[in-house]
Design brief:
homodimer, 247 residues, nine-stranded mixed sheet, 7 helices, 9 strands, globular, AB_hydrolase_fold (chains A, B)
Chain lengths: 247, 247
């Protein structure tokens, strides 16, 4: 399986943005113009909550920053989101979530499992195939890091994919109990961002997850503000984390 | 009142280290060789738990890093520590602490108050006098930041001393309830370091203190490890915090 490129855009900031499909899954690859077969670059996987076209401005911003540090970035659509066919269990769980939130009820562990685990189970093998396909390109050489907001996918990838050597995680989503258990077996270096007043996030769950990670190097950086209020300097600190572990 | 210099040492790394007394209080001032009346430098106050000669290697390390960024650093001995005359209430509280820890009992709020508050009440006016005296030197111009491990002194200084524009705090000491209340009125930018597994520290108390701060810009950086295990990159991140707010 390889990346079938469907468009190529040379941006003014020296980054090449290519859309592709991988066995029908839409994705985007960003490479610094400097990347070449004689100077292959490391790869950052850009995680997200689903909907890569809607997320494109923010994903592209992160990719441009990574390219400035000499790294390629790749993202793929999640199962059942964006232009991909709906996944019935996920549709049902999301409808239940809307009803639960509208009723002002707590989001219980069963609903969290139904919202998150099918996506993790579906997505992780696809992200691994994407790593295979990206590393088959002569201008991309590894190592690989995960960076992103779907923290459960990051945990599972950190555990399942030995080519992922570091992860920058954004603590802003529901965390199933099984993922909390898997986190104990994660040993790669981690940089976890937590927005202290994230309205959609359970702060204690994020602290518990950070505590659970088995990694010998793990950093939690909490900043004041809501879900989208990550300060610029936090992005810089995260970029330095990747530079330390990918170069 | 002015700094009476008692020694001057031009270190090989381009830093001038001068010991002084201020109305009988011993202290150390480090300035980058570049500091001059025509190019006065900002000032970082180096907080510590008491005993500046014992702490000298670590304090000097922080000062050399600050000098590389173009900042002077200053520290003074705390009341009743190092070569200063003992303070009876503090001696008594420390003896009670040793007995409490030896017995395996919890350190209650009354003991925390007795251990910390007399030191804060005594030290903060002295640190303010030291700021006066340091800023009277032509090569030091401000602004001023507090950096250090005696977090309650940092909180009180942040509140009491308008020339302190930012604080980098090391969450590793007992926190009296009155300091937690004062923290709500602190509004300067903060960078709080927490060692996640600090054996001598109450993690929840540190998180509560971080939550209490009224500052619009506050960052908590937690790293795996014990009290003295702060990783080098955390020092770099803290240095960048000071550079953002002092330049």
């Amino acid at each position: 399986m390889h990346l079938e490129f469907t468009s190529e855009h040379h941006k003014s900031d020296g980054v090449i943005e290519r859309r592709f499909t991988l066995d029908g899954i839409p994705g985007i690859l960003w490479t610094p113009a400097s990347a070449s077969p004689s100077a292959p670059v490391p790869l950052i996987l850009l995680g997200h909550p689903g909907g890569i076209e809607q997320m494109h401005p923010r994903l592209a911003g992160r990719a441009v920053r990574a390219a400035a540090d000499g790294f390629a970035s790749l993202t793929i659509e999640l199962p059942g989101t964006g232009d991909r066919p709906p996944v019935p269990v996920t549709e049902e769980a999301r409808a239940d979530l809307r009803r639960t939130l509208a009723a002002g009820d707590p989001v219980g562990p069963d609903l969290v499992d139904r919202l998150v685990l099918p996506l993790v189970d579906g997505a992780v093998p696809e992200w691994r195939s994407a790593v295979d396909a990206a590393l088959a390109l002569p201008e991309i050489g590894g190592p690989v890091a995960y960076s992103g907001g779907f923290i459960s996918i990051g945990v599972r990838l950190a555990l399942a994919e030995p080519r992922v050597v570091a992860a920058g995680l954004f603590a802003g989503s529901y965390i199933p109990a099984v993922i909390l258990e898997e986190a104990r077996r994660v040993t790669i270096p981690l940089h976890v961002l937590l927005q202290w007043d994230d309205e959609g996030n359970d702060r204690q769950a994020a602290l518990d997850l950070f505590d659970a990670f088995g990694s010998a190097e793990k950093t939690l950086q909490a900043n004041l503000g809501g879900h989208r209020g990550v300060p610029a300097f936090a992005g810089e600190d995260a970029a330095r984390f990747f530079a330390r572990h990918l170069r």
